[in-house]
Amino acid sequence: MALLDDVVSVPRRTMTVFFMIDTSGSMEGNKIGAVNDAVVNVLPMVDEISQTNPDAEIKVAALEFSSGTKWLYNEPKLASEFVWQDVRAGGLTSLGAACIELNNKLSRSGYMQAASGSFAPAIILLSDGGPTDDFQSGLTKLKSNKWFQAAIKVAIAIGDDADKDVLKDFTGSSESVLIVHNIEALKQIIRTVVVTSSQIGSKSSTAGDVSKQDQVIKDITDAVGDIKGAESAAAPAPAADNYDDWD
Amino acid sequence: MSELKPGTKIGLNGGGQVEIIKELGRGGQGIVYLVNLDGAQMALKWYLNDPGDKFYKNLERNINAGAPSDAFLWPEYITKRESGSFGYVMKVRPRNYYEFGNYLLAKVTFKSVTAMLAAAMKICDGFMMLHRHGYSYQDLNDGNFFIDPSTGDVLICDNDNVMPQGDKSGIMGKARYMAPEIVAGGIPDKYSDQFSLSVILFMLFYANHPFEGARVVACPCMTESYEKKFYGSEAIFIYDPNNDTNRPVRGIHQNVIRRWMAFPQLLRETFIDQFSEEKLRNPNTRLIEMKWKDIINKVRDEMVVCPHCGDEAFVEIKDSSTRCMNCGKTINTSLRLILGSRELPLTPKTEIFIDTDNIPDGRVAVDTTGTTLIQNVSPDAWVVETASGKIKQVDPQGYMPAKPGLKIKLKIHNEDYNLEITTK
């Protein structure tokens, strides 16, 4: 046996990117078409990040919800193995049920069973409406899940009809809710959110003790400023130290 | 956020301009473009967001000061502040250099242990020179190195956070490579660089992380608070002699399990010391780069080519013979070249590295009668004094017999070295 024989890759923790996709009837047409197109196009980028990243192996899981919920695969998959089946729109918006379903899988007996351990996942919720089921009890359950608490959470609100308060409840802050007004912006935002979340494990951090969630949101918010038809749901920063002049 | 299209021209501070040819790659902070500068192809790192005046001035100062050594892909020009941001120009990385991450992922492997040791030496030398020039690197991690797998030559990139020792760049570093005191909120300096350097060297030699063993694998979800614990306040070296709770796990940390005992004891002792609780807690007691270079020299002295199977093998300096770890046959290492506290076994086909420039100065050979010879492969003649006091000269490419009692005087890079051949 020569000294450098049989070298194997360093063990990497797994970072799973969860897509939660609203496939209710209102998503029909361009919206669902754009989501399908964006995800198909972002998967090779995720694959590239995963392949060249000595810190984390990135996997993908996708849950669609309408009148019911359905996982696209019954385990997280490498982006290179994730063959995206276009999702179709129709039915109601069972976001509460989706929360319960996600809660079930966010456990070591569910999807988080990587041998070398995991990083906190990234969860990306896409919706254009409001829940038609008991969302609050589903979310309450999910919020007690430690994986969910540690996760990077971003919601993409498609159009003005999306219930921003619900999405804010889900992610925990208005900064993590992004609103898109057109199909092109939707595609760009999906790409930005997925790529930024996937890269987070291998980035250097800066002073100020910013958490990974904050850092992802900051990077995404910076990027959103350049995308026409996309905005953050966060209130704008104060335009002046005070508004006394306006009295 | 600012991106540049092919064909865009960006003015350089101090005159001239670069023209964007294409994107080469992108990271969190910016994009690297291939650019044309007066007919030469160079690389432009362009920041997506302008990092501010202080950063610009520091970069400008570093460019004027020049690279600390040829190990650095150092910024050579800074652009004017236009198109909403700025960038700096450096040489393009040659194709035969691969990112260190590719070695960790086992996509690229060193062609030889000699190359691996050359890489370690070059990295230590680079940071020695950087610190000697009064800088600290601040963000030392696995993404900063490009290495040639056949020669072990190294290019250190991402030199834009390099700051005078004591100054803040605002960067903290990358998790798993940051020194414990930085994880706890401290400011990066040359001492934290030295910690990160030890982590990099450990990963270079053993291809696993020094703090990732059973205890860390058992953690199902690596959150930021766990990261602070496992790589900061409660970091435990996987081979800590006083604490066996974090040993490497079979099937997961394969490389280090295979190599830990196969590589020299000196290396084991050094890492055990550098990752001891005392050194983790007291930054200014960490090994300086010059000492690391001495250690790598000694490790290299213990590496010979097995005369039986031709593979590289480590031998025990304290013994006069060692069993080859590849073929199991005995390697006679009794013939030695003595250089200060170093002892270099003279076994056939082994290269002799006197100084730390990674270029062999001598080579051991055997003539047709079976006599061991040393070939001078350095550019300068050696002066040899025999046991009876005769003076001989060995010209470049010339040979001398490896007879005990011979004293050799030679010069490398204007430095004098006195060696003697002995037997053990």
Question: Which keywords apply here?
Answer:
heterodimer; A: about 250 residues; alpha/beta; Rossmann fold; 8-stranded mixed β-sheet; about 35% helix; globular; B: about 425 residues; alpha+beta; Phosphorylase Kinase, domain 1; Transferase(Phosphotransferase), domain 1; Tumour Suppressor Smad4; 3 domains; 6-stranded antiparallel β-sheet; 11 helices; 27 strands
Quick summary of this structure?
The complex is a heterodimer of chains A (247) and B (424). With 247 residues, chain A is α/β, with parallel strands linked by helices.
Walk me through the structure.
- The complex is a heterodimer of chains A (247) and B (424).
- Chain A has 247 residues and is α/β, with parallel strands linked by helices.
- Chain A has a single domain, classed as Rossmann fold, CATH 3.40.50.410.
- Chain A is built from 7 helices and 10 strands.
- In chain A, strands 1, 2, 3, 4, 6, 7, 8 and 10 form an 8-stranded mixed beta sheet that branches.
- In chain A, helix 1 runs parallel beside helix 6 (183-199) and helix 6 (183-199) packs antiparallel against helix 7 (212-224).
- The longest helix of chain A has 22 residues, at 30-51.
- Chain B has 424 residues and is an alpha+beta fold.
- Chain B folds into 3 domains: 9-90, Phosphorylase Kinase, domain 1; 98-293, Transferase(Phosphotransferase) domain 1 (Transferase(Phosphotransferase), domain 1); 326-423, Tumour Suppressor Smad4, CATH 2.60.200.20.
- In chain B, the strands form 7 sheets. Chain B has a 6-stranded antiparallel beta sheet, with helices on one face.
- Chain B is globular and about 75 Å long.
- The mean pLDDT of chain B is 94.
